[in-house]
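Running this now, will post back.
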Amino acid sequence: MTSPNNDTPSLILIVDDDVIVRILLRQFLEGEGFRVVEAEDGISALETLKRMPVDMVILDIVMPGMDGNMVCARIQELFPEPPPVLIMTAMDYDEEVDQVYSAGAVDYVRKPLMWPVLRNRIKYILKAHRASREMTLLSKKYEMILDSADNGISGLDREGRISYMNLAGQRMLGYSAEEVLGKDCQEVFRIARPGSASFGESCSPFLPGGRKDGAIRFDEVRMERKDGTTFPADLRTTPIVQEERLTGGVVVFQDITEQQKASQIIRHMANHDALTNLPNRNFLLQRLPQAVSLAKRQSRKLFLLFIDLDRFKPINDEHGHAVGDIVLVQVGKRLTKAMRASDSVCRLGGDEFVILLESAATLNGAIMVAERAIELLNEPIKVKELVCSIGASIGIAIYPDDSEDADVLLRHADQAMYAAKKKGRNCWHLYGDQIKFAAPSSE
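Update: finished.
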């Protein structure tokens, strides 16, 4: 990807104290056609930015001295036109994500890095940053609207009538220039906010009326085309003030259909296991507290089944991880088929699975599910000419009997699973001294 102002490839600054990460990122970025400079810490990064302009900064959040958030904030303070900053992090929590954005980062990517996601994120950020710089120019001199811009751009007069719309805007909305010129912007810019079915939102509430409000941003709205179809969009409208008089406005918008698709893919990848496509630990840690809260409101029980496969390690050791992976995929499919839609089967990692059982009303129902899971996993799994035999040890924890806290409930289910292992494997065990062991199945 080229720099906004010339044909030179965009220059990206990598900031990470891990030399291996820097090497991998450099190889990847240069393979994508970017130029790369490196810095090993925040101070070096700031000195580099003082010496040379860069188009983008990719910044690790955990570094000695100044962490990523501190470096990002300093970049915003020191440079009048700071480059966009993409943070690399392994964080999971909303509060930490909020801190990243508060520091001035435009986005973040999770470690371990997924190269296709990183590639598209970089291209989108560079493209959005270029559009933002163009938009700043247009807000000062609306006559200089570039017809070659990728985003839709439209100029409005002081009465809110359309005085210009570039080719990208015409293509997005399905109008010709002749059809929109002189029309009230409300007739052409049909906008609905998220969750609303009304397309009556004003794209330029500062017009008419003479108010000198600042730029207004509409994120993830829906825009209606001439033919009545709609598409998701980000839209920004900026008043034009000349000699302290409001003389019109500029509307800049972009179709974010592909961005939303990418976001959905990213969210799916963040919450699902790459091998089995089952919900993963991250999903469970988010879903379990919600399920506990719902069970509390409805005054009902909730059951958590912690599953560890028996005799799985020898399969990996004797036949290799490729065979082991096929076995894990088949385990996921068998467990999923045995569950109802309201229940969740999650893979925590390795050969550990968890069933969040919300459909069972009684303990007997949960025990039947555990016994059914053991029965299914006792059936041999064929991998080409191989026949793999496994089993399952299952620990069961009950809300609210064993705990009313989601994290503790998960830990208790894990402990119960280990108790099942000690009792001979291939059986289930209830957490709590007051509940007796089930008779172990024969292996």
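Residues 433-443 have pLDDT under 50 and may be disordered. More later if anyone needs it.
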